[in-house]
Structures are given as C-alpha cells and as structure tokens.
Write a structure and sequence with these properties.
20 helices, rod-shaped, mainly alpha
Length: about 625
C-alpha cells in the first residue's frame, strides 16, 4: 500500500482528460481533422463542415470557484441535482475531483493524529463518512439527469432530421420548371427560414442531409427566371451577410483565447451554411475569403493542441524519471529505522513533485501512474513488514529489560556490598547487550533500572565511606614501602637480605587499597621485588661458590673420601632441586590465569622456580669445582 502522503495520487486515474477549455471529444476530433474547411467547392465544404457537430462554449471560460470544504462542494452538487440548471460535464468532473481531494486530505489528517497519539497503523479502521454517502447519492441523481437530457437531445435530433427531410422534399417538388420556381418563390423563402430555425441533427446524417439541401436550393435558384429583381436582391443580401461573417472570422485572428476563437468560428460556419447563395461570379471569391480566415484560426487551434501534446510527452518523460527514482529507492537495502525514514522522506518528496507535473498522453497516463503507484506500494509494503517485525522485537527486548529490572529491585536493599555490587554490574553489562525499544518506553525502563542500581550503590557508598579513607592510607603506606625497596637496589651491605625480608613483611601486613589502584600498585611492587631478587641471588650465589672453593682445600687434607662424599651429596641435592623444579613447572601448567587471583599465584610460583633454578646452577658450579680439584 502507499504511504499516507501519496493516496491523493489515486485521483489522477479519474483526471486523465487533458486540462484545456474544450471538451475531450473535441480534442479527439481536432487531432484527427483540425481543419474545419478544405480546398473544395463551396457546396462540398459546407457539407463537410456541418458534420460532426462541435459543441460550443462561451467566448471566455469563467474562473472556477475554489472550494475549501466538502460541505461547500456538497451544497453545489445538490443545487445541480435538484435545480433547473443543466449540469455541465466539466463542472461535474471538477466537483468530483475537488470533493475527493478534500476527503482524502481529511482521512490522512485523521490517520496521522491516530499514529501521533500512539495508535497502531495496522489496527486503524476508516469510519463511514456521511458527507461522502450524500455526495455519491447526489452525483447519482446528476448522472440520471444528464442521461435523461442526452436521451431527449437524441430524440430532438431525430425529429429535426425528419423536419429537414420534409423541407428538402418540398423544395425538390418546386424544382420542376422555371414557371413552378417563380410561383413558389415565397414558399421557398419560408422553407429556408424554417431550415435555419431547425438546429442539431444526428451527426452521421448531417453530411448527406446538407448536400441534398444545397443541391436542390442551387437548382431552384438556377430555375428562377421570372423575378430576377428579387433574385438579385437576395444575392446582394446574402453577399452582405457572408461579407460580415468573413470580417468576423478575420477578426478572430486577434482573439487571445484560442479555444474560444475556435468555437466562435464554428458558429460562424453554421451561419455561413444557412445563408443562401450569392451571385455565381462571386461565389468562389467570398468562399475563399471565408476559408482563408478560417484556416488561420484552425492552424492556431491545431498548434495549441500540438503544444499540449508536446507538453504531455515532456510530462511523460519527467514522470518516467520519477518512477525510476522510486524503483531504485524501493530496491535499496535498509539497515535500520533511520534508513527507512530517510527513504520515506525521499519518496514523499518525489510524490509531491509528481503532483506538480501535468498529464501524460492519454494512452500512457494511467499506465505511468500505475507504474509509479506500484513502486511506491512496493516500498511502503516492505516498510510496513519491517516495522511489524520490529514491533515484535521491541516487545521481546522490553520483556528482557523488565526481567532485569525485577532482578535489580530484588538486590537493591542487600548489604552484601561486594557480591551484590558485582551482580548489579553484571546486570548492567547484560542490559547493554539487549536491543533497542521505542524511545519513550526505553527511557522509562532505563530510569526504573538505574533507580534500583543507584539505590544500592548510594547505600554502599554511605556505609563504606570510612573504609575508603583507610584504603587510601594503605595505598600511601604501600607506595612508601615500594620506594624503600627501590633504594635497596643501590645497597651493597651484608644485611641486604635481612632488610629485604623486613620490607616484604611490612608490605604484606598492610591492608586493602582502593580497588581501582590495586592492580597498579601490585604490579609496581613485584617489578621492583623481582629486580632485587635477581641481583641478590646472583651476588649471594657468587659469594657461596667462592667460599665453597676455599673450603675444598680443607676437604682435600682430610683425604680423597671426603671430597668424593661431598660430590655425592651435591649430586643428590642437584637431583632433588631438579625434581622440585619439574614439580612446580607441572603445577603451573594446570593453573588458570584468567582471574586476577590466578595470575598473582602464577607470578609467585614463577619466582620460586627461578630461585630453585639459581640454586640448581650453584650446585652445578660446586660439582664442577670438585671435578677441577680432583684433576689437580
């Protein structure tokens, strides 16, 4: 279906007649035979000009009234349905178009108000409209009236045809001899007047009827010998009348309203045909003058509709381009609500532009509109499906968030500060993983959720305010110990190891520090500690090895067995340390370092392993020293 903005476009299906001040049937006639006259004799041309009869209009088309409400339109329709005035097709069509434009605008406004107030577009129902029902009823009466008038007009044309046929038969009876023509002159003139008074006849009979009438009128004049004076007077009078018609036709060239000029020309042709002949030697001259003036008007009229057709082709090109734009937008992928709204605005803008473009050629007008409407419908159908699915997703997300709110409310009064805080933080992280909901509802749910969380954290902050002060003091103490440890790196005294043990004990005796600073101070402490142990172990090991080498002289004096026993003891010590290193390394493979606590334990074990490896290296060097002594 089309969006609310584009429903008015449907009216165009009922407005596919070119907007010009002439009936649609005249446009068709003009396109096929724009010239009323042609290069024929006066008799042939006059006959051709009479059929088909062209509806006439007033010299200037009155401005249409602008209606601002459906009630105004309805009142005018009632006047036409029940009054004496004959309803004209163009006004009836205009009233119908105006009524439904206003009607659709009202319906769109009601739908927009419904949606703005939170209504579901899928559940919206169009209510019956009493004004629309009354309008349809009155239009039905107008249709019946017009049908009845048309029927009466057709009956009148048939009656007129019979009357004119009777006149032709009477004139035919007079055309037998000059004597008979002279006797019947007065009766003949009376029949001519009667002929002029009789108007429309069926279009399919008009040509043949006129030819027969003209034939017997000319024959009568040719036989008229007796009253030559009356005949010459008649010719002179007819010449004056036809000259005035020529002048009127020539003056129409200055008429700015081309359609009005064309219709006035039709009236002049009707009058020209009904005037009797002029003198034989003047017939061609007067006819050529009238024909020349008519040709000017007919060419302007033809050019007018050529321009209309050219404009319609231009409109078709513009509308085709708009169709292609909408089709391209409808084919695009929309990744979210923002894309849908952006493309909706683009299509509504295109629909607004469409309404500013006039009609396309009649054979294409409905087709191009149907193409445009199909593209719009395709887009808005996909949009409706997307938001229907989105509505289900919104409900699912809202239910998940309400479940988290219930959990938060259940925890907000807890005094287990650490565990409950962790749980609430976990709930907040989970909240962020849930998709969106409509903004108004989302703001409300977020306010409820954060209200429960804030209730707990404010209570915890108030209860642990003193504890936080103590933690900051502990942080300062630990930083002071770290600074003393850094100073040991420059200490070369014999009591270095003792000082190190005292500072380590002091550090471990200090309590908790602020949570945010915990990892940072821990890392800084162990970095300096590792450096001290590394340098201390190297120095101690070196002194021990030198001392052991000095003691080898005493062992050698005791005898060869003493040195061998010491070597065997060192080998046993080497194997024991090596086994211990393997045990630690195996245990390290099973530890999980994902938690901070696990990571701390691994660091401590790594330090022990490194200490054992340093001891292992010292034992190896002692064994090498014994082997070197034995070689001596």
């Amino acid at each position: 279906m089309m969006d609310s903005q584009d429903k008015a476009l449907e009216l165009e299906k009922n407005e596919n007649t070119p907007v010009v001040d002439t009936p649609a049937e005249e446009v068709k006639q003009d396109a096929e035979a724009p010239e009323v006259v042609n290069e024929q004799t006066e008799e042939e041309t006059a006959a051709t000009a009479e059929a088909p009869e062209v509806p006439t209009t007033e010299a200037a088309t009155p401005e249409r009234k602008v209606y601002t409400s459906k009630q105004e339109v309805l009142e005018r329709v009632k006047e036409l349905a029940h009054g004496e005035e004959m309803p004209q097709k163009d006004e009836v069509d205009y009233l119908k178009t105006t009524f439904y434009k206003l009607h659709i605008a009202e319906r769109e406004a009601a739908l927009k108000l419904y949606i703005d107030n939170g209504g579901d577009p899928e559940a919206y129902q169009i209510l019956p409209d009493e004004q629309e029902s009354a309008f349809k009823a009155e239009m039905g009466l107008i249709k019946e009236r017009r049908a009845q008038v048309f029927k009466e007009m057709e009956a009148e044309k048939e009656a007129n045809l019979k009357k004119k046929l009777d006149i032709i038969e009477k004139i035919k009876a007079m055309v037998t001899s000059p004597e008979e023509a002279n006797k019947s002159f007065k009766e003949f003139k009376t029949l001519q007047e009667e002929w002029k008074e009789i108007k429309n006849v069926p279009a399919e009979k008009a040509n043949e009827l006129w030819r027969n009438y003209q034939l017997y009128v000319e024959q009568f004049y040719d036989l008229l010998k007796l009253n030559s004076e009356a005949r010459e007077y008649d010719f002179k009078k007819n010449l004056e009348l036809k000259t005035r018609l020529c002048e009127a036709a020539e003056k129409l060239a200055d008429e700015t309203d081309i359609i009005s000029a064309f219709h006035q020309l039709q009236k002049l042709h009707q009058e020209f045909r009904e005037i009797g002949p002029v003198a034989k030697e003047l017939r061609e001259e007067i006819w050529n003058r009238f024909k020349t003036a008519s040709s000017v008007i007919n060419k302007r009229h033809q050019q007018h509709f050529d321009d209309i057709r050219a404009k319609e082709e231009e409109n078709l090109t513009r509308k085709t381009a708009l169709c292609e734009k909408v089709e391209a937008i409808a084919a695009e992928e929309n990744k979210g609500g923002a894309d849908w709204e952006k493309h909706t605005k683009e299509i509504i803008d295109i629909q607004s532009e469409w309404k500013t473009i006039g009609f396309a050629p009649q054979k294409m007008n409905v087709k191009i509109f149907e193409r445009f409407r199909a593209a719009c419908d395709s887009f808005f159908a996909r949009k409706a499906e997307y938001f229907k699915n989105l509505k289900d997703t919104f409900k699912e997300n809202a239910d998940k968030k309400r479940a988290l709110i219930e959990k938060a409310n259940a925890l907000k009064d807890s005094t287990e500060w650490r565990s409950t805080g962790d749980k609430l933080i976990a709930l907040q992280k989970e909240w962020k993983t849930i998709g969106v909901v409509p903004k108004k509802l989302g703001d409300q749910l977020w306010e409820e959720f954060m209200g429960a969380c804030n209730h707990f954290f404010e209570a915890r902050n108030e209860a642990t305010a003193g504890q936080r002060g103590e933690e900051h003091e502990n942080l300062e103490k630990k930083r002071a110990v770290i600074e003393q440890l850094k100073a040991l790196l420059q200490d070369t005294g014999d009591d270095l190891q003792e000082k190190l043990h005292l500072l380590v004990d002091e550090y471990q005796a200090i309590g908790h520090v602020p949570f945010k600073e915990k990892d940072k101070v821990y890392k800084e402490y162990h970095e300096v500690l590792d450096r001290i142990y590394k340098e201390l172990n190297i120095g101690v090991a070196k002194r021990r090895l030198n001392k052991f080498k000095d003691n080898l002289k005493n062992l050698a004096e005791r005898g060869e067995n003493a040195i061998d026993n010491e070597r065997a003891r060192l080998l046993r010590q080497y194997d024991a340390i090596k086994q211990e290193v393997q045990t630690y390394e195996n245990n390290l493979g099973f530890l999980n370092a994902s938690s901070k606590k696990g990571n701390s334990l691994i660091d401590e074990m790594n330090r022990k392993v490194q200490k054992l490896k340093d001891d292992l290296n010292l034992v190896r060097e002692k064994i090498k020293a014994i082997d070197a002594k034995n070689k001596e």
